[in-house]
Design brief:
Elements (H helix, E strand, L loop, with lengths): L2 H12 L1 H45 L5 H15 L20 H4 L6 H13 L1
């Protein structure tokens, strides 16, 4: 070996610990930076989407004034439930749809007529 090679080897041996520490530190810093980049690439779009979903939920649950709610409820009720509960639709109702006692009878039995017949049988 030449003297230059020997000197270089001694210098490397002397600084070997420092060089290993530098390489380890660079390796850890590289891993941390890479993890941050991957986290940013995944986290930013995901966070943006979650924020948008949360904003939609907040908008859906937004408090409204009572008069707006009453109008909305009336429209919703008319659109979904009018006519389904046995009540005629107020927009489509006519006089022939209305219930009258004369068309179908009152449905009340006259108990007085039956009791007169029964009372006459008891006296005999």
């Amino acid at each position: 070996m030449s003297q230059a090679k020997v000197d270089r080897y001694k210098e490397e041996k002397k600084n070997r610990e420092k060089n290993l520490k530098k390489k380890r530190a660079q390796k850890y810093i590289g891993v941390i930076v890479l993890a941050l980049l991957i986290g940013a690439c995944i986290g930013y779009p995901l966070g943006k989407k979650l924020y948008k979903i949360n904003a939609e939920r907040r908008a859906a649950n937004e408090t409204i004034a009572a008069n707006y709610y009453d109008a909305w409820l009336q429209n919703y009720w008319n659109a979904n439930y009018t006519g389904t509960l046995g009540f005629p639709n107020t927009e489509e109702a006519t006089s022939s749809d209305a219930y009258t006692d004369t068309e179908e009878g009152s449905g009340v039995d006259d108990a007085s007529d039956n009791t007169d017949v029964d009372s006459s049988n008891d006296t005999e």
